[in-house]
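An example makes the point: we print one protein in full, the chain in one-letter code, the fold tokenised, without further comment:
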Amino acid sequence: MKHKFLLLLLTETVFLLATAVQGQHEDIPYQPVTDICQTCVCLRNQDSDRATHFNLDCSVRNFEHILARWPQEFGSQAIAAGASSEIVVSYSGNRIKLLQQLPATNATLTLSCRHCGLQDLQAPLFMDVPNVEALYLSWNELTNDALVPDLFRGPFRNTRYEPIGLRDLDLSHNRISRLDRRLFEHTPHLIRLNLGYNKLSSLDEATTAAIASVTTLQRLDISSNGLMTLPPQLFPKLASLRILDVSGNEFSTIPASLQQLSKALVQLNLAGNTFLTFKENSLHGLESLKRLNISGMPSLRSLEKGALNLPALEQLDCSRNPKLEHLELEDLLSSRNLSQVDLSRNALSTLTLNISSSNNSTNNTEPWPRLRRLSISRNPWYCSCELFKALELTGISHIERETDSAEARCETPYLLAGSRLSNLTAQRICTMVIPKKYREVDEEPPRFLRRRYIILTAIIASIVLVIGLVIGFVVVCIRRRLKGSDYGVQPIRYTSVRGSNLSQFSQLQPASVASKFNNVHAGSNSGATTGAANA
């Protein structure tokens, strides 16, 4: 009796709390619209299965809040109907800072509120909408504080809160850096989760536990978050995960935790990461992988042998890698179901394919009988016999014919530069004799290392050395000869000008000139003496 009384008291308490919360919700203003279908677009139709579809488009209406009720034009069926009725509503492009509790309905609901500047979500958001199926809240300003566990709880029945039917949740392009570990405890049917373009640079324990708790998850997008690794606790319980997008992060090696998805993973997107190379067995064990994207990697240089050994692979996107010069085409021989290959916009100059040396013992002439598209444009192709033999083995008719400016063309040798690969055949190239002056320059070593240039350099150096020795010998002989003759260089003697000018000058003059000079000098002296006496 006491237990029944306590249970009844607890039920009443919970009911009062729910009523109080609902009263708080009523205090928050909704968008004041009298005639909804005059402001928004209201559509209603019924399909062949007699299921009714309602569409309410209130996007870009300058709203600051959502509507308080569904349009009367939808009728009572929009509220009372169950799985046989669907409501699709869009508030995208408005100025809604707070997303309030949604109007009550039992119909299946799809809600879009993108580009609204959302900063907060009022919990419980879906208390009166248990059959919400899809929620798109991308391109907003949501942070960790807005994502609380009570956000996704459904109505209270008996002794617990009922789960909601949410299957698709898009929280991309927000400001989320971590998740509460109990965030998804009320969403047992979630199969698609998009957390791309947030700030989850490191998946901490709580965030990892929150994602790992969604055991029904089939598609996970954690692209462009600055991630460098994936914790090993992320994937053990995600046995249903088929599509994983980790593009735009900072992975330099393949996370080892991907091996835990060996039997489930069908599609993997690694584009835009910082890989330098894919080593042998990097993707080993992903035996169910059908689609692989390794495009847009600015640092990727090579794919080593064994890196693409994926038996179930059907589509390979390996484009826009400006430094990728080497790719082992033989690795793809194990992928017999390959249908699409994109190798455009790389730095590939050739492809090799030797079926006889591979482990594939098939007798078929075409290694990929289902190949329907092969794109190899915008590569610096060296049109050699080896390249065209490889292309013909893949099926030359499968080369994708793009626009004239984008179609695959030869870059070297010079004789074939600009020629379309689709206009050439292996027979023509293999029998063509290319003149020596048109051959690929890279086939020969640098000019200073070629044999004829080495010999010519040695001869010139020898001639210069001999000429230098001869000139030196001649100069030495001439100097010795001049020393023994009158033309040799004599040392200069310096004498005193005051004491020896006259004597030196008289020695250099003839005797007659000297005598005359002496007479003149004597007369001047006597005259000077007489003048002095007269004075």
